[in-house]
Write a structure and sequence with these properties.
The chain is α+β, with helices and mostly antiparallel strands. The chain has helices at about 15-20, 25-30, 35-55, 70-90, 95-105, 110-130, 140-215, 215-245, 250-265, 280-300, 335-345, and strands spanning about 265-270, 305-310, 315-320, 350, 355-365. A hairpin with a 4-residue loop joins strand 4 and strand 5 (about 355-365). The two termini are about 45 Å apart.
């Protein structure tokens, strides 16, 4: 599964916190004077370990689905580092066993993650069997064993959740693409059925009228009137088709939003009954809801979305709020387009990234403009 470029958020820096445990082997190593060769070997080992750790955990350089070879390599390197450093720094070398368990947990095979974590736990206990550690050292053994198992299991659960989310997002993008393709095919089919035959007839009758202009002006005028009638009928049919393309309203979009959010594990709460809205205003509200839900599913990491639509002195106010990560990242083309669409209607859209994301749209009470795009059609025609 290919990685998609995105901005890092605060949670992406969380794996860096665990690198702080390297302070234990570092402090143990520098407790006594070391030769330059020993220092270079030790620092080189630490640097190689950090590179492996970042390759597995850091979102900026890893893919959404980490290759299993990297996690196996990270586990093997961390376990080998334990054996190399155990005679040098003593018990603090067990830090690498815990790191190794965390690395092997970050892949899709539960059995492999747990079995290799148990291997690390057995390796951790081994020095007590051989008498390398004194009985007084056993006080730190139990928490380290627990950390090893928890690191493997927790990272495996986190990885599984991440992959499930990536697959869900991919499926939603595929569904959106298929729906867009199907809609384009439907529009092309409708236009062919509506206008193909009609325009052919108009062309033929216009050519006939041109030929009859001098020979039979009365017949030519009759053909021109027939062209006018056919054109008006075609305009009526196109108007009906465009009305169908505008969508099925806010209620239908709300139902689709609930399906999408349920699939992503997000709860949708609508605080009040939906009031009646002008046609274009309702279409804009539905499109804003669709854009908001798309952003929640893809980026917000939210658990709940609240939607409120209330009457105001100049129209209605639509508020869509989630409890996700929020922030003030630059807006995409979707929200920018919605802001321009609402501005054309005489409304406005604001975004607040504090404590989640809140979209507030002021919807006007009356429709402005003539066409579906917000501009009058040529010659005063309306669709």
């Amino acid at each position: 599964m290919a990685a998609r470029s995105r901005r890092l958020n605060i949670w992406d820096f969380f794996p860096l916190i665990w690198l702080g445990f390297l302070v234990f082997p570092l402090s143990s190593f520098w407790e006594v004077p070391r030769s330059p060769a020993q220092s270079m070997l030790f620092l080189g080992l630490i640097a190689a370990f950090v590179v492996l750790y970042l390759r597995i955990f850091w979102p900026g350089i890893r893919s959404a689905q980490v290759q299993q070879s990297w996690t196996l390599g990270g586990w093997a390197f961390a376990t080998a580092s334990y054996f190399v450093l155990l005679p040098v720094i003593g018990g603090t070398a067990t830090t690498f066993l815990i790191y190794g368990a965390s690395m092997i947990g970050f892949q899709g095979r539960t059995g492999l993650a747990l079995w290799l974590a148990f291997v690390n736990m057995a390796v951790m206990v081994w020095p007590f069997w051989t008498g390398t550690y004194r009985p007084d050292d056993i006080w730190w053994l139990a928490p380290n064993l627990l950390f090893t198992l928890v690191a493997a299991y927790a990272n495996h659960a986190s990885y599984a959740q991440r992959i499930a989310g990536a697959r869900l997002a991919q499926a939603q993008r595929e569904n959106e693409r298929l729906a867009a393709d199907a809609e384009r095919e439907r529009i092309a089919r409708d236009l062919h059925d509506l206008l193909g035959h009609t325009l052919s007839v108009i062309v033929l009758k216009s050519e006939l009228a041109a030929r009859l202009t001098e020979r039979d002006p009365a017949r030519a005028a009759q053909e021109i009137r027939e062209v006018e009638r056919i054109s008006r009928d075609a305009l009526t049919e196109v108007r009906a088709a465009v009305q169908g393309y505008r969508g099925s309203g806010l209620s239908a979009e709300l139902a689709r939003a609930k399906v999408a959010l349920d699939a992503a594990g997000v709860r949708l709460i609508v605080t009040d009954a939906l009031p009646e809205l002008p046609t274009r205003t309702e279409a804009s509200a539905a499109m804003l809801l669709r854009e908001a839900v798309t952003n929640v599913v893809r980026h917000a990491h939210a658990h709940e979305v609240r939607m409120t639509l209330t009457a105001t002195p100049r129209g209605h106010k639509l508020v869509i709020k989630d409890d996700g990560i929020g922030g003030h990242a630059p807006e995409g083309s979707g929200l920018t387009g919605m802001r321009e669409r609402l501005r054309a209607l005489g409304g406005s859209l604001t975004r607040d990234g504090t404590a989640g994301t809140t979209l507030t749209a002021d919807l006007p009470a009356a429709e402005l403009g003539e066409s579906a795009a917000g501009e009058p059609l040529p010659h005063g025609l309306r669709l």
